[in-house]
Write a structure and sequence with these properties.
about 0% strand; coiled coil; mainly alpha; elongated; about 130 residues
Length: about 130
């Protein structure tokens, strides 16, 4: 993850918030990129060991969603500089809402990923016992 420069008291609040949001988005995208790698491994394991077509389809769908979320976050990060142009409370509220909606989407996706990953791992354990 990129480490940004420290914030200084003379910087405007909007710039500080923008930089904070960029750092957070970078963390989210880095995590989703790692999830994408793990999904490749999980699909390979599923294909070689489990042969559960329904589970494989869930993993494929999750990977498509993951890639879509990564793209959306990169696009959002590129457009986040518009926060500095805000000069009204309504504009600030718009970007705050957009950021919180992105956070919610990210967290829901990670929760879904963890659930499916747990399914794969439990299937591996069941398969190993037979």
């Amino acid at each position: 993850m990129n480490v940004s420069q420290p914030f200084y008291a003379h910087e405007p609040d909007s710039r500080i918030m923008m930089e904070k949001d960029k750092v957070e988005i970078s963390g989210w995208t880095e995590h989703l990129e790692f999830i994408n790698e793990e999904l490749d491994y999980l699909m390979d394991i599923e294909d070689r060991m489990l042969n559960n077509s329904q589970l494989y389809q869930q993993l494929q769908e999750l990977q498509r969603e993951n890639r879509s979320h990564i793209g959306k976050l990169y696009k959002y990060k590129m457009n986040i500089g518009n926060i500095i142009e805000c000069d009204t409370a309504e504009c600030d509220a718009f970007y705050l809402h957009k950021h919180e909606a992105s956070r919610k989407l990210y967290l829901e996706h990670v929760k879904k990923y963890r659930s499916i990953k747990t399914q794969v791992l439990s299937q591996i354990l069941l398969h190993a016992k037979t």
